[in-house]
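Record type: monomer structure entry
Structure origin: computed from sequence
Chain ID: A
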Amino acid sequence: MVTSGADWGIYVVDSGQGLHFKLLFSAAKKIGLVQPEQRLSHVGFGVVLGEDRKKFKTRSGDTVKLIDLLDEGLHRAEKKIQDKEEIKKEKGGSGLLTAEEIIACRDAVTYGCIKFADLSCTRTNDYVFSFDKMLDDKGKTAVYLLYALTRIRSIARNAGKSREELLVHAKQNPLNLEHEAELRLAKMLLRFSEVIEEITETLQPHTLCNYLYDISTVFTYFYDNCYCIQKDRETGKIVTIHMDRLLLCEATAQVMEKCFDLLGIKTVSRM
């Protein structure tokens, strides 16, 4: 704080060191190392537990290494993806991923699910580490949210509209929202800056995880009630494209992508 002249010093160390940092901060202020206008914060966090609700260790009692967790996650995620690809083949082989897409998807799911599980809990609380829950494609998990994002992106793709075309339309035409589900989604997206400001003050990243899940939930309600694309039932050809709704899809995708970026989670175009 003295040499850098920083306005705010944030120390991310487990909650067990809370008293240490409380005394350290107090002493630094009393001897003048930290000025009254400078801010010091200890960002404490809880302990990772095994499914037996005891401190997370290997069967031999050793500390679990992160590299071993990641390797196990990669193995499980790839198997789950391959199983889904087999189901696609049984249904005719439509939408199969390439070998490169499978690897990209595996990495995004593995690293994303571990990061999201860690960040989605109130950081001062202990949490149970479970790959089965992390890799579940239902509920508040990175897998579910990454799937949701790829589905949102596929809507405009199915309509044959690029992101550039949507942006041009948005600049040239006012956005017309009438349905209650459209307004509900738009209001949710407008909360983004409010959520970021809250996290900046509280240093609680789980708030952003909750917001990301809320967006996905509200978008599902919107999609179930508002047609973005209408097709002829007999020919399957597109007869109507609702551009305002496609723009809402684009805005939703952009906000979700920014949330993922802030959480340090990579996204993929297809899953």
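Annotation 1: Residues 66-90 form the longest helix (25 residues).
Annotation 2: The longest strand covers residues 8-12.
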